[in-house]
Structure prediction request, 186 residues.
Amino acid sequence: MKLNVVICSTRPGRNGKPVADWFFAHAAANKGGFDEVVLTDLAEVNLPLLDEPNHPRMKKYTQEHTKRWSAIVEGSDAFVFVIPEYNFTAPPAFVNAVDYLYSEWGYKPAGFVSYGGISGGLRSVQTAKTMLTTLKVMPVPEQVVIPMVFGHLKDGVFEAEKPHLDSADAMVAELAKWAAALKPLR
Prediction:
């Protein structure tokens, strides 16, 4: 089974990259039931605002970037979205990336590493969960919340504390259970 850690912020100067680098390294070292852990950066995937002429349900993709993104999502058994909060909601790169596809998402679990100011990105996660459930993604309740992320960044590196590590381990273990249970439906 493959766990895909997705960096959802694409803006210059983002804090998501060091947070994702920490989580990816931690998850890769402590697989928690996954055979493979991969890191996907939406900035590198570089999806323009949805530019496919057909509805995603049809899977008649015309753009190479969509075909590559489809293969990434299709080949994953579970996701962890490393997600900030922009204006009390999920970032536009996340929304756009989710909207590009339909059936590739189905019957896979998702977890979140959210970060931001005092709320730690919790409002972003709530809006993301609503969106994902309409595509038959099962968001797990366990997540890593990082309020005041700026205080955990030193020289471009995220410094995790015990609650972050414990939350990460609990979430990955839960994602592995759900991924295994949902596999027959995929």
In short: The longest strand covers residues 108-115. The longest helix spans residues 162-182.
